[in-house]
Amino acid sequence: MPETPRSARVPVAVTALATLAALLAVSPRYGYHRDELYFRLLGEHPALGYFDTPPLTPMIARVSIGLFGDGVTALRVLPALSAALVVVLTALLARELGGGRTARIVAAAGVATTTLVLVAGHTLLTLSADLPLWVAAILFCVRALRGDGRWWLAVGAVAGVATYNRQLVVLLLVAVGVGVLAVGPRDVLRDRRLWLGVLVALVLAAPNLVYQATHGWPQLQMAAALEADDGAENRVMFVPLQILLLGPVQAVLQVAGFVRLWREPRLRCLALAYPVACALVLYSGGRADYVAGLLVLLFAAGCGPAERWMTGAGRTAERAAGRPAEETAERAAGRATERPPGRAGRRALLGGFLAAGALVSAVVALPVVPSASLEGTPVAALNEVARESVGWPEFAARVAAVVRDLLPADRARTVLLTENYGEAGALTRYARRYGLPAVYSGHNELYRYGPPPASARVAVVVTDDPAGYARSFASCERHGRIDNGVGLSNEEQHLPILVCRDPVAPWDRLWPQARHYS
């Protein structure tokens, strides 16, 4: 589509760069999220895959540390770049769906200030890479469905790459496929380029699929474990989060976007893909953000109708359609520079609502509230990422203090045991600073890095199940509790620290009892 003299390129680029700058500016605040600590730890053990995640995000962590240093901001450079990319891709989607300059600007600004994009851009999560990959695949789907079958190859390439981050992209492909079969356009099924795209996806994803097949399909085991642990809560929160992930104003535009897609026969399958994907996620007990890419599509599609509403173009066209051609032509010159009635007010209204939503999203999604003031605020209740990004240096310092209090003979044969990957990642990250012994955990992929050596006779443990460890050791004593220093009620706060001596059986026999998934 040729650019008009009043191109949206500059405003969109400025929005993307402003998003990038803002995310990098706040990146050092609070600290590592538990997932970042885990990906940093996995990145130290490069592999084709891991029990609970494909290799892309851990590799991003490793590359980021190599390029930018071993710090919080280093891990967050690429997520911030991904968020900026989502801004550009959303504007391109709005353009592809017929939106003019205003629609593209609204699409860019509206998505840049959502809780979804700000969280994904602030913290290294699997969502950080998944979101731009989904939006790119959807953009290419739109182009392919409209008749340019060459874009099916691009869809296949993006989908194949996305499997190295999460296999969740299969959800998108299945939902779109169901939409095509149900409401068309079925002629795309006769396009050999579609099947070449499928072949490209399979070839690119083949090493990942081989890893899964040869390791007992661990992603399916993880999905079952997550459904058992969080499925009920995810189902309860699914619908509210469909509104909150992008925001209430964006949700209104999503409704308009659904209608707009449904009215174009060749894109109707994309409208249907959203409820199909939602049904599959609800059935499996998955999280609301699993369909985030389709939410972005609906929002981008709704920006065109929003533009026409703001400019009054739809009503102007309707009035013109009822007039004689001579009258229409006669009034055209006089109305060429006339502002349609209420246009400024409608622009201000939508802009004001988006600005208010942006302010709320920034406070909820970014580390704006001081960590010492988080407890008891809506931010702590709504944003798990914020809660779990506070207190990790203090966590390591508390464990280190217990280790220092041990007799020298005990320290020489001590290991650290943790119950989750966040704790293991934190102790590994600060091991050099505090002179900590080796860290072991039975959680997810970390189980494969154990058991501890036979020479280990003392274990320092942070746990919410002291009685369980008492059964595995001759003695266990409490030596203080975890305190994150700001009183925030996160997962580790106030957990007891145990010193356990003399395991009752060899480690290789005890280790299977430590294995757990979540």
**Strand order, biggest sheet?**
2-1-3-5-4
Residue fraction in strands: 5-15%
What's the average pLDDT? 90
Instruction: Please give the number of β-strands.
Output: 5
Describe the biggest sheet? 5 strands, mixed
What string gives the helices and strands in order? HHHHHHHHHHHHHHHHHHHHHEHHEEHEEH
Helix content: 55-70%
Structure description:
With 518 residues, the protein is mainly alpha-helical. It has helices at residues 9-26, 34-43, 56-68, 72-96, 101-112, 115-122, 126-145, 151-162, 169-183, 192-214, 218-244, 248-263, 268-284, 292-311, 313-321, 325-335, 343-365, 378-382, 384-387, 392-404, 408-411, 421-429, 431-434, 466-470, 507-514, and strands spanning 414-418, 439-441, 458-462, 473-481, 496-503. Strands 2-1-3-5-4 form a 5-stranded mixed beta sheet, sandwiched between helices. Helix 7 (126-145) packs across helix 14 (292-311). The protein is globular, with a radius of gyration of 26 Å. The protein starts with 8 loop residues before the first helix and ends with a helix.
